């Protein structure tokens, strides 16, 4: 999602529920994002946390050893972020 789409959804949630929404934009294909997220959430009382992240690998057949960067990004995004 783009920041603009996230902001639009946040505004809609705030308008319909009266709740406060905080957006934290992060690239979950990277492994060094969690300090940034922690900093942005510091001191907040979180009622609901939505982790709306995930990606599909290329649908084209490829050799596993020829795509280490893509595989690592996929693992960071789809596995590490859940943990």
UniProtKB/TrEMBL annotation:
It comes from the Eukaryota. GO terms for biological process: fatty acid elongation. GO terms for molecular function: oxidoreductase activity. InterPro entries: NAD(P)-bd_dom_sf, SDR_fam. One of its GO terms (cellular component) is endoplasmic reticulum. The keyword Oxidoreductase applies. The keyword Chloroplast does not apply. Keywords: NADP, Oxidoreductase. Belongs to the short-chain dehydrogenases/reductases (SDR) family. 17-beta-HSD 3 subfamily. This is Hydroxysteroid (17-beta) dehydrogenase 3. It comes from Mesocricetus auratus. The lineage of its organism: Eukaryota, Metazoa, Chordata, Craniata, Vertebrata. The gene is Hsd17b3.
